[in-house]
Amino acid sequence: MPLLSIRGLGVRYGNNVQALDGVDLDLGAGERLAIIGESGSGKSTLARAVAALLPPTATLQGKVTWPELGRVARNGRDIGFVFQDPASSLDPVISVGDQVAEVAHVNLDMAWPAARRLAGELLDRVRLPEPALLASAYPHQLSGGQKQRVAIAAAIAAGPRLLIADEATSALDTIVQAEIVALIRRLVDEDGMALLFVSHDIALAANLADRIAVFRHGRMVELAATGDLIAAPVSDYTRALLGAHLGLGAALGAGA
Of 116, 189, 196, 238, which is the most buried if we count CB atoms within 10 A? Predict the structure, then answer.
């Protein structure tokens, strides 16, 4: 029984833009699935549809269900979401420790002192320097990579079943990207979470995912186990993506 089941999913913005069209997809508990494609392929729309974060202008067709949960998934509690720009997801006038604590306080009905202690533990888990001191800092005092680590700590604070990372590394430099991908992999493995990793970078996806779904023009053009997709892509579009990463085979081996 899958954790997440998507059937016939379509999303239209306004009257003219069909962002997704007829997507069928399952995600198992603890599975790591990457959604890749160029800008405008519909991959971020898929992530937001799963988390019920589509704007009011969007019209949704099809179904997003949670067979293993037996109910609608709750954002913050069942789903943790990490956005592309951590600065936009963090409140500039609240300390980062309090922002992480708030997630546990609200979603787990945890007393505030306990939530603050948990926040300190989570800031340590995401390997921020001097987490006890940094908990009192504000977002503008942190680097981009540090902000994204705080955002990840907040996303996992309530112990979600699914972590969605929507282009969570694209605003970072190459070295920090690799560090964040390694961090996500470790946290997902340690907590047994499923992962939906949205990226335009097939090399990053290949280092992280069990399976890769390739999107183009709102449709899923290919879905396969990572090793199979890298070794024998079916679609011309996937082959073109792979061709843009000559070192992908070595990178995949290093990430195994």
Answer: 196
Q: Superfamily for 31-39+73-255?
A: P-loop containing nucleotide triphosphate hydrolases (3.40.50.300)
Choose among 54, 29, 49, 65: nearest CA to 161. 29
Q: What are the tens digits of pLDDT across the range 113-128? A: 999 999 999 999 999 9
Percent with pLDDT over 70 in the chain: 96
Mean pLDDT of 81-110: 94
Q: Where are the domains of the chain?
A: 31-39+73-255
With b meaning 16 or more CB within 10 Å and e meaning fewer, what string describes 142-180?
beebbbbbbbbbbbbbbebbbbbbbbbbebbeeebbbbb
Distance CA 77, CA 75 (A): 5
